[in-house]
User: Which sequence fits this backbone?
């Protein structure tokens, strides 16, 4: 099973690893800092270097506990030692947006006791859906204002790991559908100090000020109890 380095250090831009399998256009490493697509967050891209060779990593996905790095160009051999290099501009945008969505999820949960029904991060915007029956102009303004207050307060964003038993005894940490919770004994929590903590497997900034200003672009009615916020970061 691939060791996921980004779970403990979202700022790790380069790493060394060993190729444990290779075929067609993909490579599996014993450890990786590349984030595989999932949870509404796109995969990282970047490069893989070994010897005098350098190939682009164009997509990353996770399957059965292994991380598949799709590589354009020459592939390293099984057993080769490689250096992985993350496309940092892309990764950092995703980190800022993911933390912004986490803040919005916390605000809506604490104000209206609503949970997440879906989210998606794009290149220059993001969306998040909630179990809300009503999303008036006044509510949107309040959500945006409260979210930006958390950003401006410069709260630290911490990574913690808890057992499945601890999660069960703290249901407020769960903001997603129960069937989406990974079936693993140790789970990852993202905590914004003094504000909110949630089960989360994505990459995040270390302080809320790094997010920048959150601007709600529009709202979308996705059903009686399902409302969407689309945002950009300024």
Assistant:
């Amino acid at each position: 099973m691939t060791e996921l380095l980004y779970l403990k250090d979202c700022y790790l831009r380069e790493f060394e690893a060993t190729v444990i399998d290779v075929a067609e256009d993909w490579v599996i490493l014993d450890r990786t800092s590349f984030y595989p697509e999932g949870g509404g967050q796109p995969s990282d891209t970047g490069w893989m270097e070994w010897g005098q060779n350098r190939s682009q990593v164009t997509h990353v996905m996770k399957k059965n506990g292994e991380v598949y790095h799709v590589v354009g160009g020459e592939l390293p051999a099984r057993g080769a030692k490689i250096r992985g290099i993350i496309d940092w501009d892309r990764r950092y945008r995703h980190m800022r947006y993911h933390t912004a969505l986490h803040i919005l999820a916390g605000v809506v949960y604490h104000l209206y006791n609503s949970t997440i029904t879906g989210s998606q991060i794009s290149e220059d915007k993001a969306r998040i859906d909630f179990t809300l029956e009503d999303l008036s102009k006044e509510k949107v303004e309040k959500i945006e204002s409260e979210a930006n207050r958390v950003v401006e307060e410069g709260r630290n964003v911490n990574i913690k790991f808890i057992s499945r038993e601890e999660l069960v005894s703290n249901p407020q940490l769960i903001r997603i559908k129960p069937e989406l919770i990974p079936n693993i004994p140790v789970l990852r929590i993202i905590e914004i100090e003094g504000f909110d903590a949630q089960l989360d497997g994505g990459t995040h900034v270390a302080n809320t000020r790094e997010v920048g200003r959150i601007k709600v672009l529009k709202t979308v009615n996705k059903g009686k109890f399902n409302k969407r916020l689309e945002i950009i970061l300024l």
The two ends are 39 Å apart (CA to CA).
